[in-house]
Amino acid sequence: NKLMLWVWFLGFLLFWALSPFFARFLNIDSNIPLILIWTNIIFIFWNALANSFLQWLKKIKYISITAVTNAIAKLIIWVWFVAIWRWLYGALWWYVVWLFFVIIVNYIFIYRTLRNNQIHDNFDEIKNNFKKEFKSIIHFFVLTLSLSVLMNIDIIFAKHLFDSQVAGIYAWLSVVAKFLIFVSWAIETVYYPHFVQNQRHHLSFKQILIPLAVNTVMTIWAIWFFYLFGTKILDIMKPWFGQYLNMFLLLLVYCWIYWVISFYCKIFVWWSNYKVNYIVIIWILTMIISFYTYWKNNIYNFTYIIIAVSLLIMIAILTQINVQKTNIKTEKFIK
Questions:
Q1: Considering Cα of 78, then 81, then 83, then 87, what sign does the dihedral take?
Q2: Which of 24, 165, 272, 322 lies 20 to 30 angstroms, CA to CA, from 113?
Q3: What are phi and psi of 317, to 5 degrees?
Q4: How many Cα atoms sit within 13 Å of 152 on the Cβ side?
Q5: Please, what is the average pLDDT of the chain?
Q6: By the 8 A CB rule, do 26 and 160 touch?
Q7: Residue 243's closest CA among 231, 253, 255, 251?
Q8: Which DSSP symbol is given to 83?
Q9: Residue 143 DSSP one-character state
Q10: pLDDT classification of 335: cutoffs 50, 70, 90
C-alpha cells in the first residue's frame, strides 16, 4: 500500500513537471489526452508490479491468460473507437478503464492466493522467501516494464516524428499486426509453464528451441496468407489501406522478433540470467537513437529501423540459448 501511494505521488509530480515536454513531443494541444496517457503509464507501472509478484508466486498460466485477454481487449478498443468511430480520446479513455479493471482483478487474485496459502500462519516464511527472491522480482518488474514500453514505442515515436495522417496509418497497421503477438502469447501458455517448472538442466537444447520453431512456422504462414489476401482484407478495414500491405508485412516480421525476444527473456530471467534485462534496455536506447538518426522523414525507413535494431537484439538474446546450453553441459559434467 505504501508503494502504491508513492507511485501515485511521484506520478503526480512527474506529470506536472513533464507535461509540457510530453505535449510538445506527441504534438498534442489539449490536456485531456495528456492526462489519459499519463494515467495509462502509471497503470502500466502498477500492472508490471503485479505481474512481477505473480511471477514470484509462479502463477504463469494466469499471467499468460491475462496477457492474451488484455491484448485482445486493446485491439477491440482500438478498432472500435479509432478505426470505426475515429475517436482517439474514446480509445484512450476506455483503455485506461480496462487497465484499471485488470489491475483490480490482479490484486484480488494475489490476495486470494495468499489467503488460500494461509498468509497469517506462514507470514514469516512468505516474508523470508520474498526477501530471498527480491532480486528476481525486481528483474521481472524491470523486464515487464521494458517490454510494455517496447510494445508501444513505435507508435509513440511515429506520433512524434510524422504528421497526424501518416502516424495514424502506421498506428492502425501496427495495432492490427500485433495481433500476431497476441496469438503467440496464447501459444506461450503451453510452453512457458513447462520451462518454469523444470530447471534448465532438465531441458534439452532442442526442447528450448521448440517454441521458436513453432512460432516461426506460424509467422511464415501469416505472412504468406496476408501476401495473398492482405490487400483485400486491409481494404475491407479501410478502403485505401491495401496500398500499405508491404508495411504491414514488415510489421508482422517485427512482431515475430518481438515475441521471440520477450519469450526467451522471461525464461532466462526465471533461470536467473539477468544479463538479458540489460540487453533489452540497450534495445530501447538503440531504437530511440536510431529513430532520430536514420528515419529521414520516411515511414518505411522508420519501419526498417525498428526491424534492423530488433533483429540485432534478437540475435544477442538467442546467443544466450547457446550460453544456457554450455551451462547445462557443464552442470551435467560436474554432476
A1: negative
A2: 272
A3: -70, -45
A4: 13
A5: 77
A6: yes
A7: 231
A8: I
A9: H
A10: very low
